[in-house]
Every structure is written in C-alpha cells, then in structure tokens.
C-alpha cells in the first residue's frame, strides 16, 4: 500500500505527549544507552527544543557466537543478547522531542562481519513512502522516503564516515562522507547483505557488513567507532536520531555523533577485490568517426586493495563507462560555461579527498561553490567537448594516514580522433589541525604522453578551512596555473567568513581570479574578476501552523575586472518558506548590472557590447515529495540585458507504486530582444520500473529545442551477484527538422563480476 497522507495534527500531538510522559514516568530499562560525557544525566525526555543539548550517547556492540540468518526478521536468539539502542530524538518537525514512532537497534559482530538489526515500529504500518527499489536511489533524495540509516566513523576521527541507508522494501544506498559532511561520495560501493520484513506493527531489517568492506585500525585491541542512527518517517515529515541533531545537520555530521564500543579482537583482512568486465557494442551515426563505427568488443578490469587500514589503492585498465547515463540537457542564457557533475563511478568514489576550490558548507550561503571554481574536476579526464576519449588506465591512492588525508591519482588517455594521448597526475594532501579545521595543498599536472610541453598545464595551490566558536567558518585558498604561452595573471585567491546559528545566517566573501588562470584539469566559470559577496539572513521557526521555518535574506554579488571596472552586480532579496509537510516556497527580487565587453550569442539572438541595468523576479514552489504525486514549478521574468525574458520551468514525479515511477520536466524561456523574439526549451521524460531490488528498466527521453535534437536513453540492469552487474544500454541522439537523421547511436551490452580474495 502506498500512501503518504500526514497523520491528523491532534492525533500526532497527543501521541507525542503520551510517549514523552510514558518515557519520563517509566523505570530506566536495563539496556538503556549510556552517555560518553562523564555520565552526565540526560535532560528530561521530550522537553527540549535544542536536540544538541542532549549528551552524546554511547552504545555497545555484542560479540555473537553464531551469525544471525539475514532474512529481515529479528527472531534469531542471538539478537536477544544485544544491547537495545532506542529513544531517538526529533530534529524535525518538533526539534528536541522524543520521536513519535519507536525505533530499536541492536548491533552484533563476529570475526567476519558487523550485523545491524532494527525494529522500526509504526502506528500506520504499510503507509510507507518508498521512492525506488534501485541500489543507491539514483537521482533521488533520501529525504523523500521512509529510511533507516547508520553512519560509522571507523577511525574515530570525528570527520569521515561510511553510511548505509535502507528503505522498507530492502533497497539500500551506501556512501562515504568527508570533512564532517563537507562532501559526500555515493560512488562508494560495499558488498553488504540486507533484508527487510514488513510487519503488522512496522518494519524490520537486518544488515550484514563484512569487515573486508570496511577500513579500520586492525592493530587496536578494541575498535571504538563514531556512530549515529537515523529514522525517517516521511508521511509526517519526521526525522529523528540516536545522537540528536539540529534540523540542518545530516546523519553524517560526525563531530556530533555518538560512540559505539565493544568491538574486540577482530582480525585484519586483506581487502583485495578485482572487478573485470567484458563489453560489446555497435555504434553508428553521422557524427561518428569512421574508426568508431560498427561492432566492437573489449574487456578491462578494476582492482581495489587496502594498502593500510586507512589507504586504498584503486587500479583500472581499459576503463569503460558505457553504462553511465547521458548528461541532462540544459539551457544556458549566460555568457559563461555550465558546470556538469561527474557521474562515472571510478571518479566519483573518494572524490571528496580531491576537493579544492570554492568548497560548499551544508546550510551556509557562501556566495560561491565548486560549480564556480574547482582546481580538480575529473570530467577533464576522458571527456573532451562532451564526447568520450578512451582511457588506457591508471590508479588512485586515497584515504588517511594519521591526521593526513591523502589523494593521489594518475591516469593515461589514448589518442583519439585527432586528440593526443595525455597523462594526468594529481596529488592532494590535507591535514587536520583542530576539530573541524584543516590545511592542505594540491598539485596537478596535465601533459602530452609524448612529452610535448606545448600541450602541458600545471595547477597547484594551498588552502585552509577553520571552524571555530560553534558556527563560524573561515575559508581561504591560493592557487596558480602554468600554461605555455600565457602572459597574463595565472593566480586565484579567496578569503571567506560565515556564521550560522539557530537564528542568524551571515557571510562575506572575497575572491580574485586572474585573466589567464586556466586549471586545465578543473573548472572555472569566470576569470579576470574580483568578486565580493555578502549576505544577511535569519531563519526563525515562527510557530505558525503548517510552517516549519522562514528564511528572509538579502545578498549582494559585486564583480569587477582586475582593472577595478564594474562588470557584474546582483542585489537580491529573498524569502524561503519551509512547510511542515516538506513543501517549500521561495521568492526573490533581483536588481542586476552587466557589462558586456564582447558580444555573445544566446538562443538565436545576440547581446551587443554595453552596460545593462535590469530587474527580475522569481517564484518557485516544490510540493511535498513524500506524496505519490509531487511537482515543482518556477516562474521568473523581467529585464534581460537590452530586452526582456520570461521563463517557466517545472517538473513532476508520479510514483504509481514502489516499483514504477514516471517523471517529467520542462524548461521554457522566451527572450524579447531588439532584433526579435527568441525561444529556447528543454523537455525531458523518464520511466523507471523495478522488477525487484535486483532488476531495473530505465527509459529517458530529452528534447533540446536550441539544437532541435531528441536524445534517448534506455538501460536494463540486472544485479546477479554482489556488485556484479549485467547492463544492456541503448543511446541515441537524433537530429530533427530539415537535416533529420541519427547523429549518434550505440547499443551496448556489458557484464561485470566482483571477485574477492
């Protein structure tokens, strides 16, 4: 049964009060969790508004003489010996109060694996919101579904974690997080075993994580892990945690996690796996080079080895990414390049170890992100102008050594269609200097495999990120590139400060990027700028029915060139409203100035040189994604350089069941310029069907009006063993109109197999 209607408010409040009173008046159970904060007494359950006022909890894992049978039901006798971890505390919608639905978690271990068992009671059993049965829930947010999650900081550094998320039908997502939630990596894959069971009074799960899939210091007699547990009940938009967190913090905020004790005497493991593949393809199309057309077959492999408890070596030969989805088509109405995210698993995994640039901080408004500048963006390897370049192979060493985070990468591409073979080398070092603070350095070299310096490029830099006083962050970097023939300024720098607490959100930023700054293995959106940014906002919880939080703010972006001539300015006022249902409403008004020093083309028209003042406004609404049908719509318009613009965008998702989903989106723009009226649009639709948690069909169609092309993508995927897949993929790019025809088409079959040693 799929239903996502919220419980009646009075019933929910009554249940909360009764649960809180019962907890207060009941005797403390023998298996109650303890605190790691000197035995400080817990605050009165259910009475706080600040979840972080609770002491950080501690729990005990229990060694089991025999492994439980993994079937989703906690009816094996061994589970009764484990400590019960319970009393989850809400982060939303009623921060600091006891969760309305009870969750009980037990943890066992033996020499082979860690076992997690959870009983998730639910007074509305069966009314679960489940978005997908696919592994890793691609392109979906776990905030929009019923979820149980566990995060483990296996080195107890309070910064990094591995994470497992499971929904009621047994689909799961695993990943890594870095730098206390600064970045996430869902390319990380672990051969876990997970089963769930749907019961009359809720649902239960069993999770088996082999020690060979984790990294830990095997030299310790007792393993002590940082840990947090998450329960999400989507029909009432409730998140609750074992180690309580504020609403803005994720489960992997390890500096605020609890602690898991009791794991003793587990053996060191070899951590060696290989993943060979074979692939066969048939390609055709008018844009395809003659040497790539027709049938072909190939093979390659990846190897993963745990060099030390903290360092992992990944090797790849003849790397293939044929199963990766095509990029989402987008409309660009600016004169600057668009940032496209990395989707290839080999580069996504451990990507957080290589971040350098305008780093993001969750829930902070910082004025710039990695979409503005990143010194290393792996899409520069094996992709040129959006088309693939064959990768001969390479390796990556990543992980931690004491207080150091280390990332080393070396890749070699082959010559293709007039492009030379190239070598890419990357070194990233980052050292923790205090809780939440680090300093680091990065070096990148891109060179022709033939040794020609004329095609070479080097990038390097140092950075520092400091967290102090609870909510204050300071960020900075200095970077430089070396490109043959460049005569201008090849440097970049940043200084930023931001403060966020339960009410205020304030930040300021200064950046400078030289006119010849060219990170050839990275991405930079604008050069020849001095960028100043400031914002002030508040986010009160007003106690208004149906409203979770308000966020009014003002911000200003001020860009000059290196000669101090104003080239861009945006002054914006905005209001964001978060509703208790999970819906959001946002409105903005912006006053812009743009200096166009060189004409540029956009959607059939041309913007001439000159200075332009224009105003625009935008409103967007996202309905609760926890309902079977959800939608979003955005409307914006106003001036556009020397003309006007009207834009309408939106999308929908219909979850017919937990197996079948239909999504659609549209982005339409109409420009009225002195030379005429122009339109541009992108439309997309997708069907996803899950036969089970091991077999999936995806159909995706996009239409780009600007180039009058239809892009189709179909993929059938069967998971026939742990991290072992069969893919059958059809992609096609078809030109419509007067020059109609197939631009590119590929039918591919690929098989991978995980081998563990």
Q: How would you sum up the major sheet? A: 24 strands, antiparallel, barrel
- Give the CA-based shape: globular
Radius of gyration: 27 Å
Strand content: over 45%
Which regions contain 5 or more consecutive residues with pLDDT less than 50?
1-34, 37-45
DSSP strand tally: 46
The name of the CATH architecture of the domain at 9-264 is Sandwich
Under CATH at level 1, the class of the domain at 9-264 stands as Mainly Beta
What is the terminal separation in angstroms? Answer: 42 Å
Give average pLDDT, whole number: 87
Number of helices: 2
Q: What portion of residues is helical?
A: under 10%
Class by helix and strand content? mainly beta
Named CATH topology of the domain at 9-264: Immunoglobulin-like
Short recap of the structure:
With 757 residues, this protein is mainly β.
Model description:
The protein has 757 residues and is mainly β. Among the domains are: 9-264, Immunoglobulin-like, CATH 2.60.40; 539-656. The chain is built from 2 helices and 46 strands. It has a 24-stranded antiparallel β-barrel. It is globular, with a radius of gyration of 27 Å. It starts with 8 loop residues before the first helix and ends with a strand.
Any key phrases for this structure?
single chain, 757 residues, mainly beta, Immunoglobulin-like, 46 strands, 3% helix
């Amino acid at each position: 049964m799929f239903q996502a209607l919220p419980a009646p408010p009075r019933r929910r409040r009554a249940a909360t009060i009764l649960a809180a009173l019962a907890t207060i008046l009941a005797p403390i159970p023998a298996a109650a969790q303890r605190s790691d904060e000197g035995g400080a007494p817990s605050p009165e359950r259910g009475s706080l508004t600040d979840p972080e006022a609770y002491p950080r909890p501690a729990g005990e894992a229990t060694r089991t003489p025999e492994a439980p049978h993994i079937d989703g039901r906690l009816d094996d006798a061994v589970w009764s010996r484990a400590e019960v971890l319970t009393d989850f505390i809400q982060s939303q919608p009623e921060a600091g109060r006891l969760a309305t639905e009870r969750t009980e978690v037990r943890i066992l271990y033996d020499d082979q694996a860690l076992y997690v068992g959870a009983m998730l009671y639910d007074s509305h059993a069966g009314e679960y919101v489940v978005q997908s049965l696919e592994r890793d829930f691609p392109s979906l947010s776990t905030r929009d579904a019923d979820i149980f999650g566990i995060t483990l900081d296996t080195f107890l550094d309070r910064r990094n974690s591995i994470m497992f998320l499971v929904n009621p039908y047994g689909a799961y997502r695993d990943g890594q997080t870095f730098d206390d939630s600064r970045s996430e990596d869902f390319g990380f894959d672990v051969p876990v075993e997970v089963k769930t069971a749907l019961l009359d009074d809720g649902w239960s799960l069993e999770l088996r994580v082999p020690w060979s899939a984790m990294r830990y210091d095997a030299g310790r007699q007792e393993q002590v892990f940082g840990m947090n547990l998450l329960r999400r009940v989507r029909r009432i938009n409730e998140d609750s945690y074992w180690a309580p967190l504020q609403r803005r913090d994720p489960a992997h905020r390890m500096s605020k996690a609890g602690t898991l004790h009791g794991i003793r005497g587990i053996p060191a493991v070899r951590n060696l796996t290989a993943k060979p593949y074979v692939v066969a393809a048939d390609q055709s199309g008018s844009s395809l080079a003659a040497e790539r057309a027709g049938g072909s077959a190939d093979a390659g492999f990846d190897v993963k080895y745990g060099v030390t408890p903290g360092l992992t070596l990944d090797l790849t030969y003849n790397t293939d990414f044929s199963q990766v989805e095509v990029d989402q088509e987008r409309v660009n109405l600016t004169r600057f390049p668009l940032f496209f995210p990395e989707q290839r698993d080999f580069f996504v995994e451990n990507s957080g170890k290589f971040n350098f640039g305008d780093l993001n901080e969750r829930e902070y408004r910082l004025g710039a992100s990695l979409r503005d500048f990143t010194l290393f963006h792996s899409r520069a390897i094996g992709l040129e102008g959006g088309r693939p370049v064959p990768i001969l192979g390479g390796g990556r060493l990543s992980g931690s050594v004491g207080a150091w985070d280390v990332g080393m990468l070396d890749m070699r591409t082959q010559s293709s269609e007039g492009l030379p073979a190239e070598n890419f080398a990357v070194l990233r070092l980052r050292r923790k200097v205090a809780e939440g603070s680090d300093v680091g350095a990065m070096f990148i070299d891109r060179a022709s495999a033939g040794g020609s310096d004329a095609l070479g490029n080097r990038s390097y830099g140092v950075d520092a990120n400091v967290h102090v006083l609870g909510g204050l962050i300071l960020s900075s970097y200095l970077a430089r590139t070396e490109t043959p023939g460049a005569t201008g300024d090849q440097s970049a720098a940043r200084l930023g400060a931001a403060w966020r607490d339960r009410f205020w959100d304030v930040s300021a930023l200064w950046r400078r990027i030289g006119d010849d700054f060219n990170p050839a293995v990275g991405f930079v959106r604008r050069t020849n700028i001095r960028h100043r940014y400031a914002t002030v906002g508040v986010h009160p919880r007003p106690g208004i029915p149906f409203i979770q939080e308000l966020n009014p703010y003002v911000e200003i972006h001020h860009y000059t060139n290196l000669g101090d001539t104003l080239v861009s300015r945006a002054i914006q006022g905005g209001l964001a409203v978060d509703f208790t249902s999970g819906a959001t409403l946002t409105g903005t008004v912006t006053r812009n100035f743009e200096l166009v020093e060189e004409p540029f083309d956009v959607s059939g028209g041309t913007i001439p040189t000159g200075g332009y003042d224009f105003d625009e406004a935008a409103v967007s609404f996202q309905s609760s994604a926890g309902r079977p049908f959800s939608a979003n719509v955005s409307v914006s318009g106003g001036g556009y350089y020397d003309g006007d613009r009207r834009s309408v965008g939106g999308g929908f998702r219909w979850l017919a069941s937990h197996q079948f989903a239909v999504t659609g989106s549209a982005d339409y723009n109409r420009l009225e310029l002195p030379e005429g009226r122009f339109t541009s649009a992108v439309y997309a639709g997708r069907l996803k069907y899950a036969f089970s948690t091991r077999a999936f069909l995806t159909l995706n169609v996009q239409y780009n009006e600007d180039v009058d092309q239809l892009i189709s993508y179909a993929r059938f995927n069967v998971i026939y063993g742990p991290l072992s897949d069969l893919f059958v993929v059809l992609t096609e790019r078809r030109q419509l109109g007067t020059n109609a025809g197939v631009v590119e088409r590929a039918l591919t079959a690929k098989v991978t197999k995980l081998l563990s040693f």
